[in-house]
Amino acid sequence: MAERKTKPGYRAVTKYLLVSPYKIRPVADLIRRKPYPEAMSLLENMPHRGAKIIRKTVKSAASNALSKNKQLDEDMLYVKEIMIDEGPRMKRIWFRARGRADMLLKRMCHVTVVIDEVRASGSPRAKGSVKKAGE
Q: 109: Cβ–Cβ under 8 A, 6 or more apart, which residues?
């Protein structure tokens, strides 16, 4: 049996959400590589439907991190990776004029969130390690 490679970080996955991935991706782009408290405050104040879904998944990933590593605190976490993948499509018939029918595709998506701890060096969000333009 092949050995599984594990990525560093703590993850949570939400699958088969009945929301188009095109509607959720702009929300995910706003919180990518942000500290956990900042990401949660952004998601709580956004009116989008996708923000509520992503907030639940990010909170679940943070809970996984805090339960697996008791030395962590919420302030030590950041959203390392967030992926919105396309899921299966439900095909429905959409009745049209003059006896015709169209195909209505109801798109689904999978949300994967990876949360990791902020390190003194190496993390993009660590203090003093952010490079400015032109360096």
A: 17, 19, 20, 21, 24, 84, 85, 86, 87
